[in-house]
């Protein structure tokens, strides 16, 4: 089931994929945040593009920084997402779409794992 996301592209969407066994995968990338709440998720693939702290240390054009803030999900928003959603059935999380220069995969993995208590994987790392 597709759902609307917040990105600077035409008609961006995320996906909730469920099967008859009760497994539910949430695929959420290319979005600044998620306005929806989900129950019973078993797997999550979620964008964790940057950290506000790391981004604030970068010397980059203000337009580029604003674009990241307005169209990509930060570590802080990812952590908020987990607080706002039912993670009682969650089995694993995959962090995706990390920025090369504005992220720290070890830090992100550790922070998310501390909050949710299930295995966390960084895709593409």
Helix content: 25-40%
The CATH topology assignment is: Metallo-beta-lactamase, Chain A
Query: Which word captures the global form?
Result: globular
Strand content: 15-25%
Give me the Rg, rounded: 14 Å
Spatial separation of the terminal alpha carbons? 28 Å
Order of helix and strand elements from N to C terminus: EEEEHHHEHE
Class based on secondary structure composition and strand pairing? alpha/beta
Top CATH class: Alpha Beta
Q: Which strand order spans the largest sheet, edge to edge or round the barrel? A: 1-2-3-4-5-6
What does this molecule look like?
This protein is an alpha/beta fold. The protein has a single domain, classed as 4-Layer Sandwich (Metallo-beta-lactamase, Chain A), CATH 3.60.15.10. 30% of the residues lie in helices and 22% in strands. It has four helices and six strands, in the order ββββαααβαβ. It has helices at residues 52-57, 62-71, 75-84, 105-116; strands spanning 2-4, 13-18, 24-28, 43-47, 92-96, 120-122. It has a six-stranded mixed beta sheet, with helices on one face. A hairpin with an 8-residue loop joins strand 1 and strand 2 (13-18). Helix 3 packs parallel to helix 4 (105-116). It is globular, with a radius of gyration of 14 Å. The relative contact order is 0.19. The mean pLDDT is 95.
How would you summarize this macromolecular structure in one to three sentences?
It contains 4 helices and 6 strands. By secondary structure, the chain is an alpha/beta fold.
